[in-house]
Specification:
Layout lengths: L8 H13 L4 H26 L7 H6 L9 H4 L2 H18 L4 E3 L7 H5 L7 E5 L26 H12 L12 H6 L1 E5 L4 E3 L4 E2 L4 H4 L2 H12 L4 E5 L1 H4 L11 E5 L16 H11 L20 E6 L4 E7 L6
Parallel strand pairs: 2-3, 2-6, 6-7
Antiparallel strand pairs: 1-4, 4-5, 8-9
Helix pairs in contact: 1-2
Amino acid sequence: MYSIHKKSQPVRLAFLFVCIHSALPKNQLIQFGKNSYYYVNHLFTAMSNTAYTWQNTTLNDYLYVHGNIPKGWEDFFNAVKTKTAIAEISKSLEGALKQTKTLDPPLHKVFNAFELSPLDHSKVVIIGQDPAPELGLAQGISFSIPSGVSTSKVPSIQRILLEAQNEGIDVDIFDGNLTPWAKEGVLLLNETLTISCGEKECTPDSNLPYWAPFLPLLIDFLNVYNKPLVYILWGEKAQQNVPLIKGSNHKILKGGHPSPEANGKYFFCGRYFLDANDFLKENGLDTIDWTLSDKKKKDYGAWVWGWDSEKEASYEQEKCTGSDR
C-alpha cells in the first residue's frame, strides 16, 4: 500500500504544484500555494489517516511511526509509561485480529475523543465501558453513534439523551451523534477503546483486558495537570475509577448505568449536565452547551424512563421527585 506520510510536507507541495502548474501562471501559482497550503495539508492528512487500517498498520505504528498523536495530547502520549502501555495494547490487538474479522472503531478513529477535545479545551470527562456492539457504529467517542442510525439500536444512548431532556436540554432522542459535546470540551471515553467484531456483531468486553492500563494512566496524567474537571461516572464499572481521581479541585458526579437492563431510578433524575455546568461556572470556566437540536422540544417534565424491548421504545415510568430544574 502506498500512503503519503503525514510529515512529508515537501512531497505534498510538489504534488500540489504539479497538479495545478499547467493551469496557472507562475505568479498566481506561487500565491495559490501560499494561500492554500493549510487546506491541502489538511486534505492530505485526512487521506493518509483513513488509509491506515487494522489490516495494514498496528496501533503503535499509527501513533508513533506515522505521527498521529492527537494534537494537544502530546505530553500524555509521549510519556514513557503511556508509550509502554500502548506498545503492549498494540501487541494484544494484533493477537486479537488473528481470531476475529476486525476491530471497531476503524484505526483512525480509535483516539477520536482526544482529537475532538484537546487537553486545554477539556472540562468534563464521561467514562463508558465498550464501543457500540454493532460493526460500523463505534465512532471513537463513548455513548455516540453516527447520525442517521436510530438510538433504538443502542438504547443506553437514547436514555442519556432522555436524561438531558429531563434537564431541559434540547436534544433529538433518536440522534445519538455526540460529536458536538466532544467539541464543547467533553472527553467521551470508554474503559476499552476497541472491540472485536465478526461480520456484523461485536463482542462486548472482548478487548477490555488489553486496555486496562490506559485509563488509570490518563487519570493520573489529568491529576498532575491539575485543572478543575467534572467526572461523570455512570455504573459500577466507571465508578471503580473514583479512588484514582486525586485533588479537591475536581467534581465527581455518579449515577446508575444508562443501560435499559439496569434500574432506571438510579440513573435518571441525576442533574448531571446542570450540575456539571454549575461547577464549571463556580470555577470561572466556560460552561458546556449540551444542546444537540436546534428545534425547541416540548417540556415533558422530568421522568424515570422505562424500555420496552419488544417495541424498542422508551416510555414514561414515573415522575422524578425533588427535581429543581
